[in-house]
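Friendly challenge for the regulars: who can give me the structure tokens for this chain first? No prize, just bragging rights.
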Amino acid sequence: MSEKLLIEIDNHIAKLIINNPPANTWDQESLSFLKKSIEELNDNKEIFSLVITGKGEKFFSAGADLKVFDKGGKEAANEMATSFATAFSTLSNFRGVSIASINGFAMGGGLECALACDIRIAEKQAKLALPEPKVGLLPCGGGTQQLPRLVGEGWAKRMILAGEQVDAELGLKIGLVEEVVETGESYTKGIELAEQVCNQSPLSISACKALIHSARSQQNSYESEKKPFVELFDTQDQKEGVSAFLEKRPPKWRNA
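First reply, four minutes later:
Bragging rights claimed.
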């Protein structure tokens, strides 16, 4: 069990709540528990769908806690990259339908968690971004692979390379989210959609989902991010980026 990821089973629906205040960040404990939980849900034939959201009113999830990288260096980077990749690829391959109810900021690994889900419902105040290059890093939980599939290469580059933050309405326009709802309504809407899924044949859903995923051109996309992510920890800019973020100052890039 993990207090950082709360799970409740209600009929055929699994309800997951990211619970690591103040920003619902991911760490190795919660990522490991997510992976194990999805595997157990896959083995439970009574589960047809799942809904994941963040605890509280401000954050879906702010991603990884950068203090881990600041203190742990390259070794911690390798471990966290592996944890993100295995957890979110397992979520992506959940045999049922997964729904992200985005109730606030979804940043970095938080957005990557939502990208690993089949459907995304965002509240109107939600903000979505992959800001890793701002601190000398890159998305290591599938962001560079999953985002272009949803929004196209141009918007993926705007968000990752130009650091553009997207609000819910723009996210709907570019295909990043499937629906925008009022503040406080994403979880309820997610449950409603999950219940709708439960009217479908779970075996048919699993087969259809596997075929949709097979249309993706590149396999093992999560693994492709790991090596360049870890290699960034040999650079001065990575150390400067993380330090500047934690010290709340602008980074001084050296391109080295």
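Residues 5-203 form a domain with the 2-enoyl-CoA Hydratase; Chain A, domain 1 fold (CATH 3.90.226.10). Strands lie at 5-10, 13-18, 49-54, 59-61, 97-102, 105-107, 119-123, 127-129, 166-167, 179-181. Your move, everyone else.
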